[in-house]
Amino acid sequence: MRTRARGATVYKQGNLFKGAKAQYAIGPLPGRVLSMLSKMMQPKRILEIGTFTGYATICLAEGLAEDGIIHTIEVNHELEEMLKKHFSLTDVEKKIRVHFGPAEHVIATLSTEMFDIVFIDADKKNNLLYFELIFDNVRSGGLIIIDNVLWKGKVYGDEKDADTESFRKLNDRIAVDTRVEKLILPVRDGILIIRKK
């Protein structure tokens, strides 16, 4: 008989962080940060851009209000069966809505939603685009959380690759945005927490 695990504790049973693409999954510590922020906010609506294994999805879902929903966007349809399996092992499965396709297209279909939390952890070159696309759909006092903003410390070095430059541009843009309050937590690869005024 299969039992359901509470939230992200199911991931203690698996090997989700092994293999060639393990570097793309958030680790347990950032996952606990997301869970704690969500529990503090008790959101009714969350948007996640970039699902991958679904670990962050489940962490965020742990803090949802009783009638809350998390919409999560994944571009890779090949992950569908894996995600169904992971979510089915938890007690938050019914609160998760998975959307497959390019993020900018899916975001357009959610234009009538207002979000309490948005978590951005997808293709790095488009982080700023996603921030701009979803900004008006985040309520006052809501959070926009962006992962990997320290980019292995490269943002402070001389590297000129596209991803590093995109993070520099993002960080510089958010730093001077007077519509928000912001801070970077030096957890793992850096988590940027943005609060909309």
The total of beta strands comes to: 7
The value of Rg in angstroms is 16 Å
- Regions with pLDDT < 50 over 5+ consecutive residues? 10-15
* Mean model confidence by pLDDT: 89
Strands ordered across the widest β-sheet: 3-2-1-4-5-7-6
Describe this structure in words.
This protein is an alpha/beta fold and 197 residues long. It has helices at 28-41, 55-61, 80-88, 103-109, 127-134, 162-175, and strands at 45-49, 69-74, 96-100, 115-120, 138-147, 180-185, 191-196. Helix 3 links the parallel strand 2 (69-74) and strand 3. Helix 1 (28-41) packs parallel to helix 2 (55-61) and helix 4 runs parallel beside helix 5.
Short overview:
This protein has about 200 residues and is an alpha/beta fold. It has helices spanning about 30-40, 55-60, 80-90, 105-110, 125-135, 160-175, and strands at about 45-50, 70-75, 95-100, 115-120, 140-145, 180-185, 190-195.
List its salient traits.
single chain; 197 residues; alpha/beta; 7-stranded mixed sheet; 6 helices; 30% helix
Q: Topology of this structure?
A:
Elements (H helix, E strand, L loop, with lengths): L27 H14 L3 E5 L5 H7 L7 E6 L5 H9 L7 E5 L2 H7 L5 E6 L6 H8 L3 E10 L14 H14 L4 E6 L5 E6 L1
Helix pairs in contact: 1-2, 4-5
